[in-house]
Specification:
- Two copies of one chain form a homodimer.
- With 189 residues, chain A is an all-alpha fold.
- Chain A is built from nine helices and no strands.
- Chains A and B meet through helix 6, helix 8 and helix 9 of A and helix 6, helix 8 and helix 9 of B.
- The structure holds a DNA duplex (19 and 19 nucleotides).
Chain lengths: 189, 189
DNA sequence: ACCTGAACACCGTTCAAGT
DNA sequence: ACCTGAACACCGTTCAAGT
């Protein structure tokens, strides 16, 4: 049988990553300091440097974990293929702005501006999602080119709403989301 | 007669702000360090601290200057009232994504997350722009509520495109912009 | 294997001294 | 009035020593 995890005074890599996500979501990228992490987790600097090379590789670890999380998440989006296109799009948009995601999503995109590793991971994740959304528009009946453009615009609007929402609750974003979908599904000749 | 500005080994507040904008646009918020600014401008730390209290107030000065710049810019947007709604919207969107603006716009929004002063200024600027865009949709014939919602979505999509565009040239963003406008002006009952 | 705490380096900030 | 450069404080990083 596998060993049970003890209540643990001992810390794992994952504990540190978790603490990082908390800080990132609550206070943004500039708050990600070794000392802050130590306070959050109740350990000293040396412990951090046992688990991680330095701040840069710690950030890289955060990005990779986040990316893996996202990939799983978005793969499950693609598994919505069974749904009719309209419901599929609706489900995608709801997931995109889920409250567990948007704080970190924003922090990650902020990072991506200066960190090449983060940038590559964000780009890759975006490509996956864009493809899925475009496919849905395509299945709905738009030409591939038009579907692609509508997907980009939908995606952009989603990102923009994330940024504009500030700390607003999810409920306040659902109405715009659905209205956006209606407009995007319109067929102006 | 007024004194001419000398070729100047002497530095002005504005020189430091200019250096800051350059750094912000090129390397993002984390690159805004005193030493980097000094190198950029060719002076030593003490000079910086003659003109500014500390980094925080320097950032505040950057934000205020930027905000004044934006306000002027957006007031001129409202002066487009003479144009028919559709052209007015098109002109607004073009200005919104002008290459001189988007890098700083992004940096400012990044700041706004952790700096209350920046947040307030961004909020205020957004309110002005949103009102102008909503008015245009209203003049086009949509109900006030619908106009408001379309304005928010247009705005969100604009912000999103800024973020997604990366370092792409403006030309690549014009097509999506115009297509977005077409979709937003559609009238799905 | 994992953690502590002292030590060091780097960069934000201060300040006495120069022009 | 504006700037220099030395000095100090803070936080990222290292490392010898503990369990």
């Amino acid at each position: 049988m596998t060993a049970q995890k003890p209540p643990s005074t001992r810390l794992s890599v994952n504990d540190w990553l978790q603490a990082g996500y908390t800080l990132l979501a609550e206070q943004g990228g500039r708050a990600l300091k070794v000392e802050s992490l130590c306070q959050q987790i109740g350990a000293t600097r040396g412990s951090f440097y046992w688990h991680f090379e330095d701040m840069d590789s710690y950030r890289a670890a955060l990005v990779e974990t986040w990316n893996a999380f996202l990939a799983r998440d978005r793969q499950s989006l693609e598994s919505l293929d069974a749904l009719p296109p309209r419901e599929r799009l609706s489900a995608m948009m709801t997931t995109l702005v889920s409250p567990q995601h948007w704080m970190l999503e924003r922090a990650m995109r902020e990072w991506a501006r200066t960190d090449p590793i983060a940038a590559e991971n964000v780009r890759q994740a975006d490509r996956l999602l864009l493809r899925a959304v475009a496919k849905a528009y395509c299945d709905y009946g738009f030409s591939p080119e038009d579907a692609r453009l509508r997907a980009e615009l939908t995606f952009a609007a989603g990102i923009g709403l994330l940024h504009l929402a500030g700390s607003a609750a999810q409920a306040q974003r659902v109405a715009p989301q659905q209205r956006l979908l209606e407009l995007m599904l319109a067929d102006p000749t």
